[in-house]
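Hello Y.,

Per our agreement to keep a running log of every chain we model this quarter, I'm adding this entry. I've kept the format consistent with earlier entries: sequence first, then predicted structure.
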Amino acid sequence: MRSGTIVSFDNVRGYGFIVPDGGGEDVFVHANDLLDDKSLFTPGTVVEFEVAQGERGPKAFAVHALEPRSDAGPPVRRSESFDDDALCDVLSSRQFSNEITDVLLVKVPELTGGQIVKIRETLLAVAQKHGWTED
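Predicted structure for the entry above:
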């Protein structure tokens, strides 16, 4: 694995460039080769990656965003440094259903009550399957 810093990344076009640590030619990176949440890859983000020779020069693949450590140790992958409890609230089934109902009423006011109930039940089942609700 090599490391470097994202120097540019265009979210609309889905590509950017990495400046490798230690110098050398900038490395092209495509959004399809990013292994973490795409929103993590902004200019200045430290990354680790593999390199292959592309048609137009070096191309990165298997790219992970790194989180600098405050204890001067080596950076760690951002996906490994997240505290799950800090990511989002876990709602009760009732709270989740109420949130879904509110969103549907505001964003799609033409839905009928029966449609809202079916959508809410389906989304709640998915949320419960993935542990996104408390009960």
